[in-house]
Specification:
16 strands; 2 domains; FAD/NAD(P)-binding domain; 6-stranded mixed beta sheet; binds flavin-adenine dinucleotide; alpha/beta; 5-stranded parallel beta sheet
Length: about 290
């Protein structure tokens, strides 16, 4: 099935858009964490959200979850790895799942994980964000895994069963990856090197390790690599006042479009984006598409 809309991200922007699209009875696939954006529950006190004076982040999170349930909405609990234009609609890859939608909303927040030098250039040529999608290509080969969160440890374990040799870069404490199958690296990676394909990882101390592939397992994938051709400006998605991006049927809302990073701005932009998506869908319908 081709959905009317795909929403990526479960923060205030995504929630606002999902509610509005649901009210207008559009078919919707919503990709993101079932417990919503960590930036909601983490706030100590919120004093600028109308109707919730001095709420804690957890109170706002509960109110959002209640609203989502009442409206009969649901989330997939999946991270999107890549999106591809399909000539009129979009294909969305999330882990081993694949969805299609006529419109796409980026409500992905800010990308705060640094991208390695050379990473964007080598995506699909040895750089991967998805163990399930690409792991089998590296059976018996040497790979590097850059992992930034325990959420991805099962993917690292899966890869270490397939690859011959795994160099593990894990810059956080108490990493739960099965250490018997990997070489734990000290210096962190600075760059991915290669001309036609990935050839090596260069570390911050200048040491170079030849590898066949690099898996970057992190919470957010850089916007520029998630959907090829998506225009960005200083790290944010470029949009107009209708929240349209440079690509037809693709919209963005919330922190990912720029400052100020605020709940109410995200909610407002999610609402505007949803209405623009409705207009776009109505036009498609008029054209019999
Ligand atoms: C500690 C703290 C306190 C704050 N206090 C306030 C406050 O008092 N008032 C205020 O107005 N603002 C506050 N903020 C800012 C506020 O949290 C953000 O502006 C707001 O959450 C932005 O909403 P968003 O929907 O744009 O993005 P986010 O809330 O960041 O949500 C984006 C979601 O998209 C998900 N995502 C990203 N990439 C993918 C992908 N590839 N696939 C699937 N999902 C993806 C992310 O995991 C995340 O869950 C605070 C922020 C923090 C961290």
């Amino acid at each position: 099935m081709i959905y009317d809309a795909a929403i990526i991200g479960a923060g205030p922007a995504g929630i606002s858009a999902a509610l509005n699209l649901k009210i207008h009875e559009k078919s919707l696939i919503w990709l993101g964490s079932k417990s919503l954006s960590g930036k909601i529950a983490r706030a100590e006190r919120i004093s600028n959200y109308p109707g919730f004076p001095n709420a804690t982040g957890e109170e706002l999170q509960q109110a959002f979850l209640h609203h989502i349930e009442v409206m009969g909405l649901s989330l997939t609990d999946e991270m999107v790895n890549s999106i591809l234009p399909m000539g009129g609609h979009y294909a969305i890859m999330a882990g081993s799942d694949f969805y299609e939608a006529k419109t796409v909303l980026f409500a992905t927040g800010t990308v705060n994980t640094a991208v390695l030098k050379g990473e964007s250039e080598l995506v699909g040529r040895g750089v991967s964000y998805c163990a399930t999608c690409d792991g089998a290509l590296y059976r018996g080969k040497t790979i590097a895994i850059v992992i930034t969160s325990p959420r991805f440890e099962h993917e690292a374990n899966y890869l270490s069963d397939l690859a011959d040799q795994v160099l593990l870069f894990a810059p956080y404490k108490d990493c739960g990856v099965d250490m018997s199958k990997v070489t734990v690296m000290g210096p962190m990676p600075a760059a991915i090197e290669g001309t036609k394909r990935v050839e090596a990882v260069r570390c911050i101390d200048g040491s170079v390790y030849p590898v066949d592939g690099v898996f970057c397992l992190r919470e957010s994938v850089a916007l520029s690599t998630l959907l090829p051709g998506l225009q960005t400006e200083e790290g944010h998605i470029a949009v107009n006042r209708a929240m349209e991006t440079n690509l037809p049927g693709v919209y963005a809302a919330g922190d990912c479009t720029g400052r100020p990073y605020q709940y109410t701005k995200a909610v407002g932009e999610g609402n505007v984006a949803a209405h623009s998506m409705l207009e776009y869908l109505a036009n498609l319908e008029k054209q019999g598409k």
